[in-house]
Each structure stands twice: as structure tokens, then as C-alpha cells.
Design a protein that fits this description.
46% of the residues lie in helices and 9% in strands. The chain is built from eight helices and four strands, in the order ααβααβαβαβαα. Strand 3, helix 6 and strand 4 form a beta-alpha-beta unit. The radius of gyration is 19 Å and the shape is globular.
Length: 170
Amino acid sequence: MRASRPCSCAAVSQLNTVQDRLRQVSQARAQEVAGGEILYSGDANLTDEQIAKLPFEMYRQGYAYYWTTHAHPNATFKYTTSSLLDLMRWDATDQLDLIDQPLLMIAGSKADSLYMTKDAFAKATGTKDKELFEIKGATHIETYWVPKYVDAAMGKLTPFFARTLPSGRT
């Protein structure tokens, strides 16, 4: 099985294949439990041409960032196929209402993932001290490394931490 890395945009784009992937995951898990070979998904052996044809900008930029320009020599895109079940059902926004501390969320205004950040922000109802900062013009991956976007994020983070962290803590 060759699966892409799961994220909400992937889930939306792959709804018609959920049942097939769940069957593959279940088979891989049963094989592992029976002592068989552990199967892996998420190979990252795409050519530049294949990367350019990926359906979402976040995938294209993410692939370039994580696999080419900023790749760690020991990193792979692989994960156990059986773990996809946990990844598919995990929701990062579950119980955000329990956050009762100051909250700063940062996202690029052109990020494919901006809708997820806005959803998460709305669910963080346990704190009244919260802010969603959009970095104008930035995509999701660009906020990691493009100097003007990193500077914009740091321009928010530095005063946020100065205001919210007890004196003497970093």
C-alpha cells in the first residue's frame, strides 16, 4: 500500500477510499499480530515532476521542504501501515475547550490548513485570552522557513511569551 501522509485535507480528498484503506490497515494489523511482516506506508521516492503534480500546494511544498531542502538524514516519510487507523481517527481539536491558559495560534493567510486552525481556535472556549494571528501571504509550509514569515511569527511569539510566562521562565 502506498498512502499519503494523513491530514484533514488528505481526508477530504480521499473520502471515497476510506473503506479500502481501513481494510488494508486492518489486514496489516492482523498480519502484525500474527507475527508476520510489518508493512510500511508513505514512501517518499517521488520525482520533481511527480511532486509538481500533487493535488495540494501544502503537499507540494511539504514534500520539497521535508524531503529535499530541509530533510534530516535519518528521516523517512514511512510509518507503519497499521498505525494509519490511529492517525485516521485522531482529532487534534478534541478537548480544546480544556485549555484555560493564554493561547496564540499562528497560521498563514494562504495556508491550505487555515480552516483547521480557525476550527481549532473556535473550539478553544476555556480561555478568554486567545488570539489567532494570520501571517499575510504565507502558506502553511512557508511559515517554517521563509524569513519574512518567520520574523512575523517571532514578532508575535516574543511579546506573547513575555506577557504570559512567569518572570524568569523561558
